[in-house]
Amino acid sequence: MSYSTDASQKMDVYLPAGRNADSTKLMVLVHGGAWISGDKSDFTLFIPVIQQRFPGYAIVNINYRLATPTIHHFPTQENDMKAALDYLIQKSGEYKVSQKFVLLGASAGAHMALLQAYKYSSPKILAVVDFFGPTDMTDLYNFHSSDPNNQLLLHLLMSGTPVSNASLYAQSSPLNFITAQSSPTIIFHGSMDDVVPIKESTALKNRLSSFGVINEMTSYPNVGHEIWSENIMRDVYDKMERFIKTNVH
I need a surface site. Which of 99, 136, 139, 210 has the fewest CB within 10 A? Predict the structure, then answer.
């Protein structure tokens, strides 16, 4: 279904039986793809597992406008994330679900989820599941100093460099919005990731801990920015289920 007017602004909504507006929480999935590619179908294989692990949740899988060299530069994707949640709030009565959200994102989608959770006070995000998301856009740009393709991508996405457009880089970095009231966050990252370096997640964990925010980070050795093995994903699901059931009420 559409949550706004652009063809890309669509979502799939999976509603559990026996739901009600008081207790049925929503888990919103945000796909990755460097803000320029990817699709909600990237999460298709994971949805039955998430439904099995979290049977009382409504699952929402969103698309958003992707950046091109000429249009939909950041913060378009941030705005779409906000619009999708606003739509779900508006429809909560019709869908018989609450206005209580958990966000789960991978890579660029995790960046968007973290930014939404930390930057905006409404709706209050109960928890974030972060798969190797960027947390400091300036640091990410500098990390790719020897990789002209990734730097060019970030230059286009952010309409400049950290020097020429410092304000947008700062406003787009989840690290800059963490407070003692920030959402509990569970982080997963491969130690050999050469697209989003693991230091992005380490910095996030350290900042959250410094504010006393509940967080947990698992790094997987010799794993890059890729689809993870079945064994790793089983461990991820176990940790994610335990974290959410412990910290989301």
Answer: 210
